[in-house]
Amino acid sequence: MLRTIATAVLFFFILTGPANAAYKVIWFWLDNDKQHGAAYQDGVKVHEFDILSGSDDLVQYPGTNRWTLKPTPKGVFKIQQMHRRYTNQHGVKMPYAMFFTRSCAIHGFAENMDLPPLEVQAELASKGCISLNWADIVWLFNWADIGTTVVIEGYRFNN
Q1: 104 FRET partner, CA 20 to 30 A, in 7, 69, 125, 140?
Q2: Is residue 109 situated within a structural domain?
């Protein structure tokens, strides 16, 4: 109950931005059953989409004995950088990357590719980033600006 009230209050303050400017918010809900997000402009939902996030518990690298913790940060952020084409230090392509922390971004799952089916997603996790289907990331990148608010809430466990 307290979390619901806190979320409602936070949502109100986020959406009551400057009166003379369009106020944009990207909201993500992380959940075991379905992860999704929505874009709001001036308090009105303008786009909704499925996502793939990091996991809040240990994830084993396929075919190895290596485990890692790969959570997506929770809280309220702002888009700091936007790159139509971005490759990280490990050579991983992150198309339409919108960084909301120094190392975590909203980006396309892969060049011209959509997210895998839900039953496969349970086995996958990003390293904190949030991946979207191709059409959704292109739309979101063209809609968002530097400074757009990003809200991330909920938890995802791979059990």
Answers
A1: 7
A2: yes
pLDDT at 118: 64
Domain hosting 65: range is 2-154
DSSP 79-97: --EEESS-B-TTS-B-TTE
- How many separate domains does the chain show? 1
Q: Which of 100, 96, 127 is nearest to 113 (CA)?
A: 96
Does some domain include residue 26?
A: yes
18 in any annotated domain: yes
Mean pLDDT of 25-34: 79
- pLDDT cut 70: percent of the chain above it: 74
Instruction: Look at residue 33 in the predicted model and tell me its pLDDT.
Output: 65
Hey, what's the torsion of the CAs at 148, 54, 34, 150, to 10 degrees?
A: -10
The per-residue DSSP string of 92-130 comes to: -B-TTEEESSSS-EEEESBTTBPPPPHHHHTT---SS-E
